Amino acid sequence: MAPDSADSAVLISAVTGMGGIGKTALAVEAAHRACGQGWFPGGTLFVDLRGYDDDPVTADQAVLALLDALGVRDRDLPPTAERQYDAYRALLADRRDRTLLILDNASDPSQYLPLLPGTDHHRVLITSRDRPDALPVRLIDLETLAPDDSVALVTCALHDTDERDDRPAREPDALRELADLCGHLPLALHIAAGMLRRRRHRDIASLVADIREAGDAAAFLDGGSPGTDLYGRSLALRPVLETSYRRLPAEQARLLRLLCLAPGAETGTEAIAALADLDVKSVVALLEDLAASYLVTPVRGGNGTTAAVRWRVHDLVRGFGAGMVAGNAELREEGEAARERVLGFYHRWADAADDRLRWLPGRVEPERFGDRGQALAWLDSERSGLVAAALWAREERYADTAVRLALCLWTYLDWRRYFDDSITVSRAAQQAAHRAGDRDGEAGAWNNLGLALREAGRVEEAIDAHTRDLDLCQAAGDRHGGATAWHSLGSALEEAGRVEEAIDAHTRARDLFQTIGDRHGEAAAWNNLGLALQKAGRVEEAIDALARARDLFQTAGDRHNEAKAWIGLGLALKGEGRVEEVIEAFGKALEIFREFEDWYWAGQTLENLARAHVDADRPADARACWLQSVDAYIRANAPTEAARARTWAAELPE
Q1: Which long-range contacts (CB under 8 A, 24 or more apart) does 174-179 make?
Q2: How many CA atoms lie within 13 Å of 244's alpha carbon, on the beta-carbon side?
């Protein structure tokens, strides 16, 4: 905005952003600094247009205030609006000292367009909750504060009142949590700071606890709001949100309400279309209008297409919108129907993506996803919404579809090693299926829960989960489910060091899979039986079992599990000292894992290769494998394993 800068041709700037973001404060502070540096010797003219009040200031009213500030009043005031504008522009044209005109809180261009100077000598700064996209205006979009800046704002606010207030230093974690609850919105943070001043003998954690207990941050903060800000405006969140909401056309208001019910913090365009029961083209137009009003925020994906854009709603807006729905019976039914639609959308495509991840040659091709990469990319982009939607299983109305969604997610969550999500989703599905009397769904959920618990190192809990799965399958006479349960239970028992029990469980699983003719299940059982036999020291039997597993997986075209069988076979061969065969087995496994971009198992395989090279007295090859495993683990989001591999590489002799 500096008159002598390279941007001197920019006559009009607009500070835009959602209500409470700090537009007025920034504009006023910028004006003070600019005037202090001599950029505007004519000073500042400021008009609050109150654009979002019930009775906004019109341009005709504003020009009277501006003429008054310029010394034109009473008898000198022209009698008609047209002549008043003429007088206003003439005064500015004759004013030699450059002046900054701040037109604050505008909601419509009609409020400020007649007030623009008829000269390029002066500068104009507009603040608004709506982007003036139709005008050639330099836009300064404000976003919520970064977490560190939010903490600094509250800290400074408290210290400015009492420099002895040491609560921010004593309670850094509680202060960060408070900033999160405020959505890093400056208005909410100022209100929270005021409440902390009032309760100066209580700690920050007490305010955090009170907000969490209330469940609605905006309502709670408004209930304890300390009054007005430096500009005489009420320190209250709900009126700000209400005025923005009330200005929306009906279709935009409906979409905003429904979007506030979406399961994730960010939602994809297709999911929003399902939520609103609209086609993608229509919903994008509405979303762009809401984004222009700063009620939603577009988050661009990697390829810049409409499908790649995701849409985020601020937490306080989300709480406001959800409250609007909860308080009206008609809106509640509309919202529940919308949630059913988006849950059905997520289940359909998660099921298709899961089918692609599990797909083997000869099976029917899943819809939509042409390869594993496409399925994983979609699951990655929708993960937060998928997990949150699966947790709707806790609500009776959505339980059936949400349980089925949860069962579809296990392979993906295991592949990406999101074990906490898998545990949470599987437990919710198990409880919902139990309440509904869905024994098949409950058994599947117990199995998935046990697998996730075992991967998370909670082996005893995993054994209990698989035992419950087995009991349900046996009670229902489900031989296939029983075989799967024995298979999973065996792996958990082996992890717990109960090797003989694991061998028995895997043998039972193998026999059941053979009986029902499930060759793929039989291959998996042979594989895990071989691993257990190796742990028991029965190496020749282990080699035979693992070779059978490898051959069956090859026949089935399941290359990923074939690679795991090669790993097991390599470990068994290592026990026999057959080093070159070990290296060959691990090499075949590594080739497949890299083909699948399964970087965690690639890292595991490279570690095993490194040890085999150590056994073969090839330290350079071993170091290279360990360093490659570091890269693989980093790609797999496994920092602990990456650090371990880096340490082992460093410990090798030169």
Answers
A1: 174/203, 174/204, 174/205, 174/208, 175/151, 175/204, 176/147, 176/151, 177/208, 178/154, 178/204, 178/207, 178/208, 178/211, 179/147, 179/150, 179/151, 179/154
A2: 26
Distances 68 to 40, 63, 65, 89 between C-alpha atoms, Å = 19, 8, 5, 13
70-103 in b/e form (b: 16+ CB < 10 A) is: eebeeeeeeeeeeebbebbbebbeeeeebbbbbb
Secondary structure of residue 299 in the 3-state scheme: strand
pLDDT at residue 225, rounded to an integer: 62
CA distances from 555 to 355, 519, 560, 569 (A): 19, 9, 13, 17
What's the pLDDT tens digit per position in 553-609? 999 899 999 999 999 999 999 888 898 999 999 999 999 999 998 999 999 999 999
177-211: buried (b, 16+ CB within 10 Å) or exposed (e) per residue?
A: bbbebbbbbbbbbbbbbbbbeeeeeeebbebbeeb
* Listed residue (443, 520, 519) closest to 482, CA to CA: 443
β-bridge mates for residue 104, sequence order: 48
Q: How far apart are CA 402 and CA 430, in angstroms?
A: 11
Q: How far apart are CA 590 and CA 373, in angstroms?
A: 18
What is d(CA 337, CA 551) in angstroms, rounded to the nearest whole number?
50
φ/ψ of 116, rounded to 5, equals -70, 140
Residues in a beta bridge with 48: 104
Cβ-contact 612, 631 below 8 angstroms: no
Q: What is the tens place of the pLDDT at every residue in 429-460?
A: 999 999 999 999 999 999 999 999 999 999 99
| Interatomic CA distance for residues 513 and 229, integer angstroms | 72
> For 161-198, what is each residue's pLDDT tens digit?
999 999 999 999 999 999 999 999 999 999 999 999 99
d(CA 410, CA 460): 20
Residue 538 neighbours by CB under 8 Å, 6+ apart: none
SS3 44: strand
Give, to the nearest 10 degrees, the angle between helix 186-198 and helix 147-161.
40
Unique residue bearing structure tokens 């061969």: 573
